[in-house]
C-alpha cells in the first residue's frame, strides 16, 4: 500500500519532508523571509526545509506580517534573495553546472529545473531539465534513480542582460508529486557574467 503509506508519512511531523537542492547552496530561511512572509511561514520552513509549498499559504493567512506583494509562496517557497547573498553563483553561457538534490521522501511525479524571472514570475526560455513522468518514485531516497538526484544543467546564452544582477533571476527546481498532490521548490541564486572578450585574438 504505497500510496497510503506515503500519505501517512506526510501527516507525521517528525518525518515530514521531501526535498531541496543541496548543491549549489539553495535559499535558506533568514531575516528577510521573516520580514516579508512572517514568522509562521519562517517557522514552518525551519521545522522542515524540504516540505511542500501547499502547507505555507494557510500558515501565512494566519499571520499579519505576511506581505503578498513581497512574498510569493509559489516562487522558491517565498524564500528571499536577501537571505542568500552569500551564496550567489557566477555563471557564463555554456557553462555546465552540476546540481545535487536531496530527496528526503519520494513522491512519484513530474519535475523541472528552470530559470525564473523573479520580477515577472515567468520561466525564462525553455526549462533546462524536464521529467514529464516518473520523477522520484519509491519509498525512500535510495529508490530514486541517481540521475534524478545528481544531474547537470547547461547555462543558456542570451541571459547576459536579463540575469546580470543576482536576484533578478533564479534557478528553480520544481517537483510535483502527482499522487500526494504536493509541490516542492528550491532555488539557487546566480548572476550571468558576459563571456570574456578574447584580447589580441587578431594580430595585424
Ligand atoms: C535544511 O535543513 C537542514 C537540516 O536542518 C540543514 O542542514 C540545511 O543547511 C538546510 N538547508 C537549507 C538550504 O536551508
Ligand atoms: C515547470 O515548473 C513550473 C514552476 O517553475 C511549473 O509551473 C510548470 O508546470 C512546470 N512545467 C513542467 C513541464 O513540468
Ligand atoms: Cu508527502
From TrEMBL:
Q: Which GO terms describe its molecular function?
A: metal ion binding
Recorded hits in Gene3D superfamilies, A to Z, give: 2.70.50.70
Q: Which UniProt keywords apply?
A: Copper, Disulfide bond, Glycoprotein, Metal-binding, Signal
Cofactor(s) the protein requires to work: Cu(2+)
Q: Which Pfam families match?
A: LPMO_10
Q: Does the keyword Metal-binding apply?
A: yes
Task: State the signal peptide span.
Answer: 1-17
Ranges where the Chitin-binding type-4 domain occurs: 18-190
Q: Which InterPro entries match?
A: Cellulose/chitin-bd_N, Starch-active_LPMO
The record's PANTHER family line, in alphabetical order, gives:
BINDING PROTEIN, PUTATIVE (AFU_ORTHOLOGUE AFUA_1G14430)-RELATED, CHITIN-BINDING TYPE-4 DOMAIN-CONTAINING PROTEIN-RELATED
Q: Which family does it belong to?
A: Belongs to the polysaccharide monooxygenase AA13 family.
Q: What is this protein called?
A: Chitin-binding type-4 domain-containing protein
Q: Which organism is it from?
A: Lojkania enalia
